[in-house]
Amino acid sequence: MRIGEFAERAGVTARVLRHYEDEGLLEPSRTSSGYRDYGPEDVGTVARIRLMIEAGLNTATIRQYLDCVESGSDRMSVAMCPALRDRLDEVSARLDDAAARIDRTRAGIDRLTGG
C-alpha cells in the first residue's frame, strides 16, 4: 500500500514514516516506478518502533534492537534480548533519578514559599 494509506493505518504521518526510513528503522519495498510499497507486516514494525521511542530509546538503539522485540497479542516482549532489557533498565533508573530530583526541587520550593 502507498505511504498515505499506510500512514493512516499505522497511526502516524507520512513524514514520520520517511523519518523512520531515513534512520534505517523501516525499509518498505518499492514499486517499479519507485513508490514506497508497505505491507501489512510493516504496521507491527511501526508499532514496535513507536513503543520503543515511548520507552525512551533513541533511533540508534532502536535500530540495534528492533529485531529483538516480539509482538504478542496485547504487548511486546524483550525476553529474547537481554541487552535490550539492560538498556531499558538503564532508562528506568535515569527516570527514577529524575523523579527524585524533581521531588527534592519541589521540597525546596515548598520550604522557600512556606507551602
Detail the topology: elements first, then pairings.
Layout: H1 3-10, H2 14-22, E1 29-30, E2 36-37, H3 41-54, H4 59-65, E3 70-71, E4 76-77, H5 82-113
Number of domains: 1
SS-derived structural category: mainly alpha
Helical content, roughly?
55-70%
- What is the average of the pLDDT values? 90
Classified by CATH, the class is Mainly Alpha
Give the helix tally. Answer: 5
Tell me the Rg in angstroms. 19 Å
Instruction: Indicate the overall shape.
Output: elongated
The biggest beta sheet is recorded as: 2 strands, antiparallel
Number of strands: 4
Q: N-to-C terminal Cα separation, in Å?
A: 57 Å
The name of the CATH architecture is: Orthogonal Bundle
Question: Secondary-structure element order, as H and E?
Answer: HHEEHHEEH
Order of strands across the main sheet: 1-2
Organism: Gordonia spumicola
Pfam family, one: MerR_1
GO molecular function: DNA binding; DNA-binding transcription factor activity
Keywords: DNA-binding
Brief description of this entry?
It holds the Pfam family MerR_1. With 115 residues, the chain is mainly alpha-helical.
Features:
single chain; 115 residues; mainly alpha; Multidrug-efflux Transporter Regulator, Chain: A, Domain 2; two-stranded antiparallel sheet; DNA-binding; MerR family transcriptional regulator; DNA binding
Describe this structure in words.
This is MerR family transcriptional regulator. Keywords: DNA-binding. Helix content is 61%, strand content 7%. It has helices at 3-10, 14-22, 41-54, 59-65, 82-113; strands at residues 29-30, 36-37, 70-71, 76-77. The protein is mostly helical and 115 residues long. It has one domain: Orthogonal Bundle (Multidrug-efflux Transporter Regulator, Chain: A, Domain 2), CATH 1.10.1660. The protein has a two-stranded antiparallel ribbon. A two-stranded antiparallel sheet has the order 3-4. The radius of gyration is 19 Å and the shape is elongated. The protein starts with a helix and ends with a helix. The longest helix has 32 residues, at 82-113.
